[in-house]
Amino acid sequence: MRYENVVQGRFLSRPNRFIALVELDGAETVCHVKNTGRCRELLTPDAAVYLERAANPDRRTAYDLIAVEKGDKLINMDAQAPNRVFAEWAHI
């Protein structure tokens, strides 16, 4: 499984469980969060986050928040990733 068009940003806040505000290239950007869990221990102010540009240009948000750095670890935030990885492995 590979993500395409990934960029790094800086986490600012999470107004609700579906949306995050991220600084990207000096501008505040609204991103879709692919994990609706609380994630308060991961999504902390100024955390380095990784975003994938959405394939659909008409989508409400241009990016999905897919990962966050926590210490020296990169944590995947995409709740759909395990299913996609299994489907690739099982050739579904």
Short descriptors:
mainly beta; 46% strand; five-stranded mixed beta barrel; 92 residues
How would you describe this structure to a colleague?
The protein has a five-stranded mixed β-barrel. The mean pLDDT is 93. Helices cover 11% and strands 46% of the residues. With 92 residues, it is mainly β. The longest helix has 10 residues. Strand 2 and strand 3 form a beta hairpin. It is built from one helix and six strands; from the N terminus they run E-E-E-E-E-E-H.
Short description:
With 92 residues, the chain is mainly β. The protein has one helix at 81-90, and strands spanning 6-16, 19-24, 27-33, 48-53, 63-70, 73-76. Strands 1-2-3-5-4 form a 5-stranded mixed beta barrel.
Q: Write down the Rg.
A: 13 Å
Structural class: mainly beta
The rough form would be described as: globular
Please give the largest β-sheet.
Answer: 5 strands, mixed, barrel
Name the helix and strand elements from N-terminus to C-terminus, one letter apiece. EEEEEEH
How would the blueprint of this fold be written?
Layout: E1 6-16, E2 19-24, E3 27-33, E4 48-53, E5 63-70, E6 73-76, H1 81-90
Parallel strand pairs: 3-5
Antiparallel strand pairs: 1-2, 1-4, 2-3, 4-5, 5-6
